[in-house]
């Protein structure tokens, strides 16, 4: 089961890198998006809505942002998730053959165990106290790892300009919504499915930590911490240093030069 997770997540690394870059662009584009929303605030006519949608899409295209990119790794894993759920659910009901598995393979898979509990067992579907303890521990770990992963994005990889943006509000909802989903759905999932998602969550958490540490969003606390680390090691690129603004030296005041008065003009003044 762990091998399956490692193979799948390793294959999804290019997709994950693309997701991270798109998410970072989404954070950086929030100030411009807020200005665009303010520009069309209160305008409900069809022409204004069309202009807003067009300018918004142009903004996403220009900055390389994609609001749906964060869902891509999850969507690519859904066939594996549902396939695994179908196999384990069928094995629990002693189905003769499940999917591509024949009767012998299905029987062998149904007998696979994790710490003495069958992978096909569920929290509510078994009276074995060992199954319930393992399921409860895995549910807590799944929810906690998801919360920590989302929290480190919000706490370390957000610049001040995105704190009150709509994107940030969505992230705050996801911070508590996803762990809640794992908490309640885990009670009905087979242990094999929860093993897959738990190992996958740990992979994501470690991968996210590495990305935030080495590719932080400009202006975020993680970005400042990275600059301090590189500066201490003397490896901070000149392009990332903020040049000091030199104060201009006060220039001496120049007095207007007086033209010499000719003799004729001097005589006229005396008159």
Give a concise summary:
With 271 residues, the protein is mainly alpha-helical. 65% of the residues lie in helices and 1% in strands.
Topology:
Blueprint lengths: L1 H10 L1 H16 L1 H10 L6 H18 L8 H21 L10 H8 L2 E2 L2 E2 L10 H28 L9 H20 L5 H24 L6 H13 L29 H8 L1
Helix pairs in contact: 1-9, 3-4, 5-6, 7-8, 7-9
Task: Describe what this molecule looks like in 3D.
- With 271 residues, this protein is mostly helical.
- The protein has a domain at 9-29 and 65-230.
- The chain has helices at 2-11, 13-28, 30-39, 46-63, 72-92, 103-110, 129-156, 166-185, 191-214, 221-233, 263-270; strands spanning 113-114, 117-118.
- Strands 1-2 form a two-stranded antiparallel ribbon.
- Residues 241-256 have low confidence and may be disordered.
Mean pLDDT: 75
- Beta content comes to under 5%
Enumerate the spans where pLDDT stays under 50 for 5 or more consecutive residues.
241-256
- The separation of the N and C termini measures 113 Å
What are the main properties of this structure?
mainly alpha, 11 helices, 65% helix, 1% strand
């Amino acid at each position: 089961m762990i091998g399956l997770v490692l193979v799948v997540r390793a294959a999804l690394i290019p997709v994950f890198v693309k997701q991270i870059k798109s998410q970072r662009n989404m954070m950086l584009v929030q100030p411009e998006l807020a200005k665009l929303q303010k520009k069309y605030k209160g305008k409900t006519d069809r022409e204004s809505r069309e202009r807003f949608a067009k300018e918004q899409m142009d903004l996403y295209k220009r900055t390389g942002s994609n609001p749906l990119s964060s869902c891509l790794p999850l969507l690519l894993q859904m066939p594996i998730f549902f396939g695994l759920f179908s196999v384990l659910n069928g094995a629990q009901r002693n189905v003769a053959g499940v999917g591509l598995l024949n009767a012998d393979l299905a029987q062998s898979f149904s007998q696979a165990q994790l710490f003495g509990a069958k992978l096909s067992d569920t929290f509510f579907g078994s009276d074995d106290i060992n199954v319930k303890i393992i399921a409860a521990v895995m549910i807590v770990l799944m929810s906690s790892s998801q919360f920590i992963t989302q929290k480190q994005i919000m706490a370390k990889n957000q610049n001040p300009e995105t704190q009150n943006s709509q994107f940030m509000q969505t992230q705050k909802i996801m911070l508590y919504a996803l762990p809640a989903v794992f908490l309640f759905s885990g009670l009905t999932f087979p242990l094999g499915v929860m093993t897959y998602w738990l190992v996958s969550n740990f992979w994501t958490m470690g991968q996210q930590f590495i990305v935030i540490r080495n590719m932080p969003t400009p202006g975020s606390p993680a970005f400042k911490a990275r600059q301090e680390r590189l500066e201490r090691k003397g490896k901070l690129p000149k392009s990332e240093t903020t040049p000091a603004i030199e104060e201009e030296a006060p220039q001496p005041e120049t007095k207007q030069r007086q033209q010499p008065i000719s003799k004729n003009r001097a005589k006229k003044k005396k008159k």
